[in-house]
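Sample entry as discussed:
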Amino acid sequence: MKRQILLSMVCLMTIATQAQTDTTTVKNDSVIWDKDLEGMTVTAMRQLIKQDIDRIGYDVQADEDSKTVSVLDMLRKVPMVTIDGEDNIKVKGSENYKIYKNGHLDPSLSKNAKEILKAMPASSVKRIEVITDPGAREDAEGVNAILNIVMMDTKKMEGVTGSVTGTYSSLNLPSLGTYLASQFGKAIVSVDYGYNYMSKQATKNDGYIERTYVNTGNTQVVNTEGSNPGYVHYVDVNASYDIDTLNLLSASLGGYFYKVNVQGISDVAMMNNGGNQLYRYTENYYMPGYRHHSWDGRLDYQHKTRRKGEMFTLSYMLALTRQHTEQETNYTDMQNFPYSYNGFLENASERFTEHTFQADYVRPLWEGHKLEVGTKYIYRQNNSDNSQRFYDATMTTTSTLFNHNTQIAAAYFDYMYNKDKWSARAGLRYEYSHMKGQYPDGKAQDFSKHLNDWVPQASVKYQIDDRQSLKLAYTTSITRPGITYLNPAVYSFPAAVQFGNAHLVSAHERSVLLTYMYVGQRLTLQIVPQYRFYDNALGAIIYADGDTRYRTWGNVLKQHRFQMEGYVQWKPFNGTTFVANLNFTDNHAENIASNLKQHCTSMFYYLNLSQKLPWKLTATAYTYGQVGHSPMNIYAYSQSWIRYAFTLQRSFLSDDRLTVRLMANAPFNKNMHYKTRTTQGDIIGWGDEILSQNGQYFRIGVTYRFGKLKASVKKTETTIENSDEVGGITKGK
C-alpha cells in the first residue's frame, strides 16, 4: 500500500509497506533521505531552495555535484547569480556586491572572488545565501546584494573532520582545496586552504581589436597573444571561544596571495580611410613576478542577556591590500613609428588599509517584533606611487604620488516583524563621510569633500500558503569610488592615455523588486521582476584627440534597468532533475556629459539536466551563456556567447566518502569566442577574444571526506561588513 503525506511543509514523503524491520539509512548530503520503520519505508526529497524575508538560500549539500565541484561551479545554480564567459560573477545582474563567509564580510573573497572560488571545494560549504535585501545595518555601504557562503556545521563537535578536493585538467591546470575543523576544550578552530596553478597553456589568450577614430577616419588594427602563468593561494582561519553561556569571543584571519608572470605580444597597425598603412609596430610586454597580497583580520565579542534574543556585539576589523607592478614594454619592427621612444618601464605601487569599529544591539520588543540599532566608524587609507621611464634620448621620467583618505561615521536602526503569515522589515541609516585627497609631491592642489547620506529600506513578505509566498522590497545603496578611479596619475602608451578623476563623489542607486516563490514536491519556481535606477552613477569617459584614445571616469551616468530573474527546479521523475537559472535585462543608460544614449537587452541563462544511472552513476549535461547584448559601458556591449559541458560522477566507500567526477568541457569546440562591439562615441569598432581556459578541455576531480562533522566555528550573530567601494585595488573586478 502506498500513500503520500506532507512532512514539515517542505518534504513530500512516499510511504510503502515493507518487511517488518527497524533499520535506518540516512544520507545527509544527498537529495534523497530513506528510513525503514516498522512496516514502512519513508522517502523524502530535500528542497534545494529556501526563502526568508531578506534572503534566498541554496542547500549545497543537497546537491550531488557538491562532492567534487568548486564553489564557482555551484554558484551557477544559485538563483539571482550569473557568471559570464570570463567567469565574472554578477548578483541580481550587477557586479556591485560583497561576499560574506558565515555571515561576516570576507575581504579576500570580495576582492578576488573568481580566483578563490575556483579553488574552494563545494563539499566544505553547507549553504549559499543571496541576501537580496540587506537591512539598514549594511545597506548604505553600497551593495545591491550579498553572497553569504555558510560553511559546514551541526550541533556537537566530535573529533576532527574535513575534506580534501583535487582536480586536474588537460590544460595542465591542477588545483587543491582543503577544509579542517576541530575542538580544543571550549575553543573550536577551522581552516580553509586553497591552491590553484595557472599554466601557460590554460591562461593563453588571443585577441583581435579594430578601432576606427571617427574624427580622422583612421583605423587601428591590433592582434594580440599572451599568457599569465602563475599560482594562487588563499587561507582562512576561524576560531571561537565560549567564555560562558552568555559570552562568546570569535576571531578570524584570512589572506589571498598570487604571483603571475604576465607576458604578451601585440602587432599594431594604423590605416587611413583608404586602406593605406600609416604606421605599424610590434609591442612586447613583460611583467615578471607580479605579486598581489591581501590580508584581513576580525575580532568580535558578543554578550547575550537573560532575555531571549537580546544581545550586544562589539567588532573590529582590519583589512590590508598591497600591490606592486613592474612592467617593461619594448617596441620593435617599427615602421613610421610616430613617437620619440622605443619602450618604457612602468612602476606602480598601491596600498590600501582600512580600520573598522562597530557596535550593534538587538532587542526583542514583544512577540513578533524586534529592533536592531548600531553605530560604525571606518578609517580608510589609499596610497599610490606611480612612475614611467621612457626609453628616449633623455630617458624621460614621469611620476605621481597620491594619497586618498576616507572617514565614515554611521548610525542605523532596523525594525523587524514576523507573525503568522506576515513578515516585514524597515530601517533607516545615516552616514557622514569625509573624503580627502593629497598630492605629497605638490603636482596638484589638495582637496576634500563632506557628504551626508540618508538611506532608507523596507520589505514585506506574505506567506500565501505552505508552498507559495510573495515579497515586495525597496532598497537604496551607495557606491563610492576607489583609488583606481580617483588616482590622477597619467599612464601614457602609444595611442592611449589613462588617468583617474580625484573629484568623483558617491552615487546612489534605488531599486524596487517583487518576489514570487513556489516550493512544491516536484517543482520549485521563483520569479523576481525588479526596477533599478540611478542618476549620478560612476561611468567610464572615453574620447579621442586625433588618433589618441583617452580614458577616465566621472559621475556621468543615468541608468534605468528592468530585470526579470527566474529560477526553476523540476524533478519530473525519480532520479531526474532539471534546473534553469535565468536573468533577463532591459537596460537604458545615458551619459549626461556627452548626451550619448544606449539601450541593450540581454538574457543570461544556465540550464542543467542531471540523471541518476545504475551503479551509483550520475550523468549531467549543462549549458550557460548570453543571448542579446549586455552593456560594458555607454559606448560598447558584449554579444551573444555560449558554453557547455558534460560530466559523469560516482561515489565510493561507506557514506560515499570518496567521489570521482569526470568532465568534458566544450568537447566539440576547440575555441570559445567572447565578442564585443563599440557603436558610439569618438571611437567605434569591435573585438574578439579567445580564452584557452574556456575552450576545449577534459578534467578529473576527486574528493575525500573524513571524520564526523559535528560542529562549526561559532560566529557572533552580527559583525562588520564594508561594501561600498568600486574601482579600487580592494575590489578585483
Remarks:
- The chain has four helices and 44 strands.
- The helical segments are 71-75, 107-111, 113-119, 483-486.
- The first helix runs from residue 71 to 75.
